[in-house]
Amino acid sequence: MNRIYIFIFFVVLYLLLEYYVFQAARFATLGAQTAVRKWLSYCYWVWVFLPVIGGFFLIRLGSATYPGLRVFITSFFFINFIAKFFVALLLFGDDLRRFVSYIAQFFESKQQGRVPGRSEFMNKAALLAGAIPLAGFSFGIISGAHDYRVRRRVIYSPNLPKVFDGIRVVQISDIHTGSFFNKTAVKGGVDLINQQKADLVLFTGDLVNNQSDEAKPYLDIFSKIKSPLGVHSIMG
Length: 236
Hints:
The protein is built from six helices and three strands. β2, α6 (219-222) and β3 (231-233) form a beta-alpha-beta unit. α1 runs antiparallel to α2 (34-61) and α1 (2-28) crosses α4 (120-144). The chain folds into two domains: 2-144, no CATH class; 162-233, no CATH class. The chain is mostly helical and 236 residues long. The chain has a three-stranded parallel beta sheet with strand order 1-2-3, with no helix packed on it.
């Protein structure tokens, strides 16, 4: 039950933020036809409510039941929230300017003045500021989950026994199997590991995101990793 209350609290904050940013989106489309503006508004709010609906179903069904869906919804919400936060930050600065200008008008004329309009430049700058992290995070999550790279390091240690001279160790870090969505790409990563001809393979840190079950769909793929001294792992 506590999870429901926490979820509702964050949803309310999220929707308030989205409504604030929506004003900037409406302002940016003032020159468009009415039908186009309505269509864009529908698309905007569908985009907004997708993670809310998904989060509700996850709470009802249990996030462990659909780990892939949980990762997708969490990532979607995080990206959306960060992008809109940058938009709101700039919009708030412009609204603060408008408020100060309004107060100045009031004291100068001793009567209620007109609230200054929103700056078109700041409105566009705010939307652009939100679009950059939105595109960047989206690209990073989609491409970064399977972007495997080999970084080679030669380690010297005077305290290491001679028997370890020349040993080749492959260390695999931050796997986060719960974030995978492409088994073919994961197989490519395993092939890349085996190509290194390692004497010892170590999985270090964050093999999963939250639940150990996240690794189960990939056990048959990871079992293809071979080395003379074995393959060892920690959960992280």
